[in-house]
Structure formats: C-alpha cells, structure tokens
Amino acid sequence: MSKIDFSKYETKGFYDEMFAATQEVRPNYELFKKRLEKLSRNKLEFLQHATDRAQLSLGMTFNVYSDNKGVERILHLDIIPRIVSGPDWDLLAKGLEQRIVALNMFIDDIYNDQKALKDKIIPRDLVLSSAGYLKECIGLKPPENVWSHISGTDLIRDGEGNFHVLEDNLRCPSGVSYMLENREILKRTFPELFEKLHVRPVHDYSHYLRDMLESLTQEYPATIAVLTPGTYNSAYFEHAYLAQQMGAELVEGRDLVVKNSFVYMITTKGLQKVDVIYRRVDDDFLDPLVFNKDSLLGTPGLFEAYLKGNVVLVNAPGAGVADDKAVYAYIPRLIKYYMGEDVLLPNIKTYICAEEQDLGYVIENIGKLVVKQTDGSGGYGMLIGPHASKKEIEEFTIKVKNNPRNYIAQPMVNLSRVPTMTEDTIEGRHVDLRPYVLYGKNIKIIPGALTRVALTKGSLVVNSSQGGGSKDTWVLDNK
Amino acid sequence: MLSRVANTMYWMNRYIERAENYARFMDVNFNLALESPSETIEQWKPLVVITGDWPLYESLYQKVNKKQVIYFLGFDPKNPNSIYNCITNARENARAIRPELTKEVWEQINSIYFFVCKGLEKKRWKSDDPRSFFKKIREDCQLLYGIFDATISRNDGWHFGKIGQLLERADKTSRVIDVKYHILLTNTEAVGTPLDLMQWAALLKSVSAYDMYRKKYGKLTALNISEFLILDKTFPRSMLCCLIHAEQSLHAITGNSGGFSTSAEKQLGKLKSELEFAEIADIFNSGLHEYIDGFQQRLNVISTHFYNSFFTTQIEQIQQ
Prior knowledge:
Structural class of chain B: mainly alpha
Largest sheet of chain A: 5 strands, mixed
Distance between the termini of chain A: 38 Å
CATH architecture of the domain at 204-314 in chain A: 3-Layer(aba) Sandwich
Number of strands of chain A: 24
Number of helices of chain A: 14
Helix content of chain A: 25-40%
Strand content of chain A: 15-25%
Strand order of the largest sheet of chain A: 5-24-23-22-6
Oligomer: heterodimer
Order of helices and strands of chain B: HHHHHHHHHHHHHHH
CATH topology of the domain at 204-314 in chain A: Rossmann fold
Helix content of chain B: over 70%
Radius of gyration of chain B: 20 Å
Distance between the termini of chain B: 15 Å
Strand content of chain B: under 5%
Number of strands of chain B: 0
CATH class of the domain at 204-314 in chain A: Alpha Beta
Structural class of chain A: alpha+beta
Number of helices of chain B: 15
C-alpha cells in the first residue's frame, strides 16, 4: 500500500502555508508531514470519511437558502489542518486588538459626538448613507461603550505571506461553532499529533463568551438567552450549540414578550425576566415596531427595552455601520485618529466607487479587480474581474455606474494555499482565516480560528454557500 | 422552562413513542400470520383502521394489500403519522430543543432518522421480509428511551417528555386491543375458538406483554388479557399504568402531591381514577370497543388541557 507522498506536491508560485517552496516544508508543519507520510492513502480517506460521519451525527448541518427545505448539507471539513506558528499568531492578535478597539471607538463616536465626521477623517455622507447605520441608535451608550462584543475578522495572506484584513464582520459573525467542533473532530483524527505538537486550546471559548455576556449586566444571577431566527436558519446549529455550551436559554422571537419595557421569556410557570440577549437575528428583524414591520422573527418593544437599559443586546444594533465596505477603506486612518497608532494589520487597497477618481479607475480596470457590494456578504453580489466573462463584466459595469455608492473594488489577491484532500490526491487550495474576538470589560482573542477553504480548483471564493469548506486551525505554542 | 420548549419536548417523545408503536402494529400482523392456520387470509385493513387514518388511506389508494399498508404506515410521506414522518418530526423537534438534550440523546435520534431515510430510499416495504426494518426501529427507539432516562436530569423537561410518551403509549395500547374487535367484525363465529385465543396471544406479543401476562395469569382468556392490557397497575404498557406514571410526572411539574391546580391535572386524575375503580366484566358488558373509543377521546381532551395549562404562548392565558 503506497504511503502519502508530498514529492509531487507543487506550490505553483502561491504562498503555501505548509511548504516554503516545493519540497521545503515549513517548520510548523514538519511533524505533521512526518505523521502523514506514515499513512496510506486508504487510511487517510478513511479518516476523512470519519469526519464527514461525525459532522452528520453531531447535526453540524445547514440548509442553503436557495435549496428546497429538507436538503441538509455539512460544511465539508478537510482533515489537513492549517497550522499557524505562535509568533505569527501573537502578531495577528495584537493587530486584531488594535482594530477592534478603534472600530468600537468609531461606532461610539458616530452615534454620539461625530468627531471623526467634524474633523473630516471620513466623509459624513459615506457614513450616514451606510446600510448598517441606524438613526434610531443616536445617543445610545451601550455597556462599557462597546458595540461589537463578538466579531469575526476575515483575514487573508497574500503572495508574500503578509496578513491583510478583508472584512471586519462586526454584526453576527458565524462559524465559531465550527472552530470548536472541528477541533474536537480533529483531536480524534490525529490524537498522537496533539500530544506532541502543543496546539493552543480553544475549548474555553464558550466559557469566555458567557463571562463576557454576564459582565454586561448588574443582575446576578443573570438570565442569558441566545436569540435565533429558528431551525431553518443556516446557522441554527451554531445558535443551539452556543446556547447549550453556555447553559443559556435558546429562544425565538415568539418566546419573548415585552412588558413595561422589560423583556420576559414565556415559560411553563409564567414570565421570567431576561437580562442579556446574544441575538443572532439581524438589526432589521429585531423589533417590528421600530425596524422591519413585517418581521415575525423579532419581538415588539425589544428595542425600547434596550434603549431604557433594561436588557442588553449583543452585539449592539447599529454596529453594522462599520461593516460597510466603503467605510472599511478608512479604517487605517481611523486607527491613527482615535489611537495615534499606525495600523498593524493592513487593509487591502480599496477603491471607493462613490469617489469620482476611484470610480474612473475601477471602470477602466474592472477586468483586473474584484468588485464588491458595500453591504454584501456571503460571497454574493461580487465580481472577480480576472475570472469573469465579458458579459458579466459589462453587466457589472452598468451596475456600478448606476449606483457607485453601493460598490468598492480591490485588486485581486492570490490568497495563500494549504494542501487539501482532493478526490485522488492532495493539492493546494486557497484559504482565508477568521479568528474570533470577544470584547466586554476586556478583550479576549481565542488562539484559533475558522479556516475557510475554496474546495474548487483555482477558486478564490471560500464562502460556505459557494462551495467552500473548512479546516481546523492549529495555533502552535512555540515562541 | 420555555413553554415552546416544554411543548416540543412533549411532542418529540410522543412522536418517538408513536413510531415505535407503529412498528409494533406491524408485528401484530406478522405474529398473526405466524400463528394462524395457513388458510386464514391476512387482514391488513384493521391495522389501518385502528390508527384512525383509514379515510386518508382510502383517499390515496384503491387496494388494501400487505405492501401498500406497510408503505402507508411505515414510509408514506403523505401519511402524517407514518413512521417516517414521526421520526422526521421527532428529529426536527429535537433540533429545536437541542440545548435541553444530551449529545447522546441527540445522536441516537439522529441515527434513527438516517436509518428511516435510508429505508425510504431503499424501498424497504418492497422486501419479502420487512420485519427486520421494524424490529430495528423498535430496538432503536427503546435504546433511545434508555439513553434518555440514563442521561437527562429529572427536570421539568424530562417530565413533560415522559407525559408525552405515556399518553401516546396509553392510546396505542388501547388501539392494539381494538384490533381484535375489527378482526372479529369479519368473523363473529370465531369467539372462544383456538383461533380466537391465538389472535389474543399475538396481540399480547406485539406489546411485549406475553411473558408478564403468563406470569400473572398463566392461562390465556380474552377477559384476563383485556384486564391485563387495560387495568393492570404494574405492567408498563397497560393503559392504567401509563396514566399512573403520567400523573406522577405531572405532579412533579406542578409540585402538587395530590389533587390539582391545573385543568390538565384534573382531567388526567379523573380518567386515572375511573380506570382504577373499573372492573373488566363491566367494561365487557358495556362493550369493549365503545369503552376504548371513549378512552381515546378522553385522552384527546387531556391533551388539549395540557396545551392550555402549559404550552400556550398567548399572553392572556399566562399566569403571572
């Protein structure tokens, strides 16, 4: 039986997380490579299938929005991990911390003093026209002045191996349950590696999450609830998982009622007050009295109870103002403005179509650029110029010209690659990295992340709704 | 606990119990076929009739035969009570209350679900001997009860689940007894014959009551078998025994040691007491089939009172 053999593996000019060059393994992957080379292809496939089965059994499934009800899929977990060295991680963590502090200062500023607008650090129109901006939040002071308590920054590594921030995801980032469960599954796949490698643990995430949520209220003991849109939501597994891991109540909008501006759960023994809600329902759907009137997912009166300080919503409504992809372009400047520091984790160069000069450049060079909707997510509503057909490019050009505020463009970045199981061999596939940041009284960054991988050969789109899978991310405890 | 969660826990357990009992219904006929003289024709219609879904069956299918009935009761996505649908609903319920369950319970429900889906995909009703499929359903459900009891705290959720299971079980045991009535409708001369007793024995076996019955009564008689399945206080599938334990769980939830503070307790307590003081001879004299019919209607009423007492999310009805 032939053993796994990396001698034919090619990096093809991309930054490869495992190999510095063809045949030259990076130190953080040395042990892993040795271990893999002892396995036969059959054994490796067996281990891969076992992870698929484990995911099904655990119910780590989701429905894709366009599918008919009943079609369940798993987010494919590739068993070859993404291994990050300790020093690399520590640098990343510093950059994330700087960024989340500045972003929260920015959001707080926008809804209160608007100093950054007065000082013309960022154009007023751009901020106030952002889809995530909620005028209802003007004057709001959330606990600890933190708006985005839970964020999941999307990072990518370019051809030179430098990390960049792609998106900040300050509203309801998902995927942390996959970070946690992927680890549990991989521990069973490669137990002996975990004994030798000193991978930093992630399992205490739910513990920190609960601590953070409790720290936002004076009530003791606090009643904490996770608000889910329900079992048909594609991230439902995660909502249930986090509620269960934290020992919190998993509620839907219809389980809650607001009386005298307090929020209660409807229980078999009457009404019970709720103190903190980790809501996984978008701003628009939280409260039909204030936002989307047709929403059946929310609870009437919830926002008023929040404004009166009788319940804590996590994340705060309105935090999405800083998730706008045009606002994103200004974040390095905002870091300098609020903190007097240079940005540690750079952005990707971003052209703002709302600005005339940039628009001209984008239209001229659209075939070389990646164009994104400023309020888009999930890999929808974007154009990858170098991979697009002539017709797609023409259609997108018209869209951009008609509504420039709605678009930004970035150069195409060749995301780094990690060896990944394919049908019959192991090949490099492009990945990104989503670590999770908790921000209450202080900041906690769990040493781990969701690595999303574009499973289709050559693809740069890692989103689960578009053929992406995931990998476990091992942060080593080396110096 | 959340009213929605309590309701879901109750229904999840009802659905699992229903699926298991439908698998037992199949056993009634498999057992009859084994024990009857070879010239007797297998009767499949009574099985559909006792489930209460005969009108639906008639509207969907022209003929009554073994494969069609097995499909209808076991796999039919159009039959809301088919084993396939019960298991699918139970699993959806389990998903909705996942934080109330243990990993072990969830994984077992999930595993039953995948098994049933595979059965549908592989068209198991067409196989010559579909018994192994239904045997596996029964065993898997019983394994689930075991895991449920061995891993879940005796909190309100557990008790709501128990009540759902026991009310469903009481109803289904009553329906198994009723099979006899529907078979007899076609052959009234059989009463008291060896064939008659063989049929009773088949019913006992389908609710796993044969051994415990033998131990208590020794001889097979229609009167004793009915008494055992309706009025026995200790056999876990008898109608009365189910009500006794359902009432205990209900008291555990309300904190009452007797009497009632909710209409659900009142209705359940009344029905239980009536069975406690009933005599089998009286039941036979007034008509066994009519008695069972009335019992099932009373269970439906209790179920409605349950909803109003604990599960409603209508604010006006919630006690402060």
